[in-house]
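Records of this kind hold a single protein each, on a pair of labelled lines. With that in mind, the following record should read easily:
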Amino acid sequence: MVKKAAAKSFDVLIIGGGPGGLAIGSLLARDGVKTAIIEKQSAPGGRLRSVDFHGCRVDSAIHFLVSLAGAVERTYTYKMFTELRLPFEYKTVPWPMAKITKEKPGQIEFFTMDPKLGAANFFAFFAFATGVDMDESTRTELTRIATITEDMSEQECRKVVNVSFADWLEKNTQDPMAKAVLQNMGPIIGAPIKDVNFGMVANAFGTFNRVGAPLIWYPKNGTLETAIIAPLAGYFKEHGGKIITKRAVRNVIIERGRAKGVIASDDDNSFMMEEYTAPVVICAMPLFQAVAQNIIKRSTLTKDWAETVKRAADLAIHDLSGFYLLDRDVIPRDGHGWIHMFDTDYGIPTYVGDLCLGTYTNAREVPGKQLVCGLVVGSSEANNFGIPTRMDMVRAGRRKWLAAAEKAYPGFNKAIQYEGMNLQLNFTRYAYAVSPVELDIQSPNIKGLYFAGDSIWSIGTPMSDKCFQIAFPLRERVLQYLRA
């Protein structure tokens, strides 16, 4: 049964109440557009939710925020909060690479990128990881490639999303050592270089020459939910927006090539479906998920979009977040915030995951205990969880991470009082897929159908910051369509 009521008629319907849905919703609500967000959970938040863990309050998945534009003030997250006149304070966090080995328990070798060095960071990182300095020909070759990428505009990068980074390296790099250095960028990208497009890598690699090393940052106070989600949700509702929770969108209504609304099921009464009407529908959930769930029919996509969506789905692998409540302080509280761990006991330094203190993410801790969080990237070559997720690989990744943590901080495993794990879809890396076209914010063939979130735009800012980058041009596009 489908029920329809005038109260369920809006100017814009947004599917998903994560950071992307709340960002575009807030901009439209401020402009007086009658907007509703339809969220399947009991509250908005998406992958920026907080959870309770044995007396602690912490992010549901371990993320860090990245700026490839230098200062945090240049990120779109900061620009969004400034645009809406919402207060936002931040802190920067060191992001060192760490080498560990069982032969030297508790003796960690650190390397931190220096923004002043630019592309020369790769020379220093290579020497750190291998113990061997680069020769002059390798330095010259890497400098040449850095200059090429620095000079590429976003539009030029978009023209080569159909070329894999591995293929580009094979054809354009002669020096074998330079090629080896760049082939080992997988842990930094978060996916094997054969699976990601050169346009995205060029856009990111050019950053080193333009502004120096990537900047890692986080809200100064509160978790991602309290610092980002709650203020946006509050702003959206204060400006007339409506958040409809516990509703799962079943289908986008498309009639004669135009979006007309959505059909959603009531979570409290699964037998009852509701029709919400609007001339504009914005899909703020990953597009490949919307297609897989038949919310957007594959038949409504153009051929090249359908192929791009398929390739994005192939890179949509879960990451493993680990939560460890220790019965005492094992890791120095004035340590390195966020550590990118490389274990040298695998023959060559092998990336096994990241480690950070709960205090880095402003988690609420239990007095007398220490909360430690871990991240194992499921799309790296060392820990590829596969599609669908292979739990044997997840367990293997967990074991590697725990072994590395013990080598770095002896006594870590014995101090664990409670352990929790969470598998959650990675941020953005699926958008890096080698694809015939780059997905845009607007459907190429369905009027009134738009896209937000992080599954579109291979070229842009990293991770959740892209949700806010997309919202600005999307608002202009939607307003133009509504006026017309």
Q: What stands out?
A: Residues 465-483 form the longest helix (19 residues). The first strand starts at residue 2 and ends at 9.
